[in-house]
Amino acid sequence: MTINVKEQEDLRRQIAELGPWFHNLRIGGVETAPDHFLGDYPSFKWRRFKDVVPADLKGRSVLDIGCNAGFYSLEMKRRNADRVVAIDTDPHYLRQAEFVAAQAGVDIDFRQMSVYEVAKLSEKFDLVIFMGVLYHLRHPLLALDLLREHVVGDLMLFQCMQRGVEETSAVADDYDFSEGDIFDRSDYPKLFFIENRYAGDPTNWFIPNKAAAEAMLRSAGFTVLQNPEPEVYLLGCGERHYAAEMPPICDVKKS
């Protein structure tokens, strides 16, 4: 799409008014976050694992959880997804996402809601995108249980920040109560709790090492199909842990 100087100035003004942006998107030749501290985010990450997502999503439905400004939702529409539902708890990000979708001329169903409310959608999706959300949650395993139970029909694209060693090793099915050394192993599944802030963000609550991220996914009933880069997984549906109770349907009130 070609736009004249006046139209571009107006576009820059609208983008600035909708700031600050966490997704760097290109709208009519204008970048929304050109000085992002991570670089051209999330485009540079997407390029590393985009091939694990089907190139043609025609006839399929997608749910984008924690959609932010809608980068991944827009990419799914570019892959011909019939239906894209995108949710976020932050009205600021949803305003940005709605603007981006309108500029691109695509139909995306945006809703302000929490991951804990996904049962209200009453729908299972062919692909669920759950990128960069888990470590912002006070109840991460509950969120995974709710996703597996209520909305993941086939595949889930998952990413979670990880800290600690990247090595993983097999663990036994059981350990004696007197066994303590296993917990000192750096590759044992560990979930680090952030009481105050990490990277200046008070919503960074739990950060797993690689072993813990994969163990939590298995426990919630997901199987790893591909792991194209350290923090990113394409998941399928498997069996939930035999001792895992059914997740409740959480009715989260908007404040």
The rounded distance between the terminal residues' Cα atoms is: 40 Å
Basic shape: globular
Major sheet characteristics: 7 strands, mixed
* Beta content: 15-25%
Structural class assignment: alpha/beta
Residue stretches low in confidence (pLDDT < 50, at least 5 long) are none
User: Order of strands side by side in the largest beta sheet?
Assistant: 5-4-3-6-7-11-10
Radius of gyration from the alpha-carbon trace, in angstroms: 19 Å
Number of helices: 6
Mean pLDDT across all amino acids: 95
Could you state the order of secondary-structure elements as H and E?
HEEHEHEHEEHEEEHEE
Number of DSSP E strands: 11
Helix content: 10-25%
Task: Please provide a written account of the structure.
The protein is an alpha/beta fold. It has 6 helices and 11 strands. The strands form 3 sheets. Strands 5-4-3-6-7-11-10 form a 7-stranded mixed sheet, sandwiched between helices. A two-stranded antiparallel ribbon has the order 1-2. The chain is globular, with a radius of gyration of 19 Å.
